[in-house]
Amino acid sequence: MLFGLAHAYQGRGGIVSTGVFGVLLAVGRLGFGSLVPVMMWHAGLDLAAGIAAPRYLLKQTTSG
Fold this sequence. Notes:
- The chain has 3 helices and no strands.
- By secondary structure, it is an all-alpha fold.
- It has helices at about 1-5, 10-30, 35-55.
């Protein structure tokens, strides 16, 4: 719940989606008994978002 609330700057959708992701990370932590796989999942998501964000969020300009 706190993980989702920490992303309140992203709006309601950000709170819900990161809250769900936080629950999945917590379940992974409990299932693996280690924080390392969960940290790798989080890093992978951040990396994917960092690569995809400019492509989908930045305005495309045409030169001509």
